[in-house]
Amino acid sequence: MNENYEQLTDEQNEKLDKLKTIITELGSLAVGFSGGVDSSLLLTVAHEVLKDRVIAVTGVDASVPEREVNEAKAFCKDSGIRHIICKVNPLKEEGYRNNSPDRCYFCKRGIFTEVKKIADENGIEYMAEGSNMDDIGDYRPGLRAVSELSVRSPLREAKLDKSDIRLISKAMGLPTWSKPAYACLASRFVYGEEITEEKLNMIDRAEEFLIKHGFFEERVRIHKNIARIEVPPIDIPRIASDEIREKVYEEFKKLGFMFVTLDLKGYCMGSMNATLRI
């Protein structure tokens, strides 16, 4: 891992030092690891500080694409970090299955209940997750479960925001520094629509199709039998071109969507939360 801390500001170096201090004081840590930008930095710093007293735990269910799990596995293998995969089933929770506004609460609670069991089995005292300062302003019911289960949030405690995390990750030579933001497939459902394994699989395969065609920052939102595609505004002309548009339409129809639409606003993280403010 090539490191280049000279590109960081004094404030960012201070935040990084603060993060290391927080983790050092914990002594041992089980990191809820998704393989995303935030948890990758947290895990890397924790491993640097705590060595073999840190483990990565990834909760896997139908809402997590296989590609994300494989990337998490590869990251830990390349970094020499012990990685444990645990199966979870949030669909057994009615509040999750019916996609209530508190859906993320039930999911986070289930995952970190399992992380706690694994931590106890391995003599690990603390749990941690990768939320940052930018998550405070958005609707994040999952953070309530984090608080209830005494899960630490070292990135937030060190006052790191997403920009800091990407720049520090780049300085540390992490391959995840430029990885697009990711949220579980359940976030593609409009609130109140039932989440099923079949629909999660439809979304997963639809997004995989878009990624294979070069749309790396994308979302396929589901509204009953309608697929609403979000891509950055700069990519709208390409996906709307006859060559790509027809391929996308035909593939999505095969997957089970009755109608296939393109959101003219473009990709917007957390766009389903807009319905909560209507």
In words, what does this structure look like?
With 278 residues, this protein is α/β, with parallel strands linked by helices. The chain folds into 2 domains: 5-171, HUPs (Rossmann fold), CATH 3.40.50.620; 185-277, Alpha-Beta Plaits (2-Layer Sandwich), CATH 3.30.70. It has 11 helices and 7 strands. It has helices at residues 10-26, 37-50, 66-79, 94-97, 103-121, 142-148, 154-157, 162-171, 197-212, 236-240, 242-255, and strands spanning 29-32, 54-60, 83-87, 126-128, 219-223, 226-230, 259-262. A 4-stranded parallel beta sheet has the order 3-2-1-4, sandwiched between helices. It has a 3-stranded mixed beta sheet with strand order 5-6-7, covered by helices on one side. Helix 2 links the parallel strand 1 (29-32) and strand 2. Helix 1 (10-26) packs across helix 2 and helix 9 (197-212) packs antiparallel against helix 11 (242-255). The protein is globular, with a radius of gyration of 19 Å. The model has no long low-confidence stretch (mean pLDDT 95).
Category by helix and strand content: alpha/beta
Number of discrete domains: 2
- Radius of gyration over alpha carbons? 19 Å
CATH homologous superfamily assignment of the largest domain: HUPs
Name the CATH architecture of the largest domain: 3-Layer(aba) Sandwich
**Terminal CA distance:** 47 Å
Major sheet attributes: 4 strands, parallel
Strand order of the largest sheet: 3-2-1-4
Share in helix: 40-55%
Text of the CATH class of the largest domain: Alpha Beta
Shape: globular
Unreliable runs, pLDDT <50, ≥5 residues?
none
**Element-level helix/strand string:** HEHEHEHHEHHHHEEHHE
Total of DSSP H or I helical runs spanning 4+ residues: 11
Q: What is the tally of beta strands?
A: 7
Strand content: 5-15%
CATH topology of the largest domain: Rossmann fold
Overall average residue pLDDT: 95
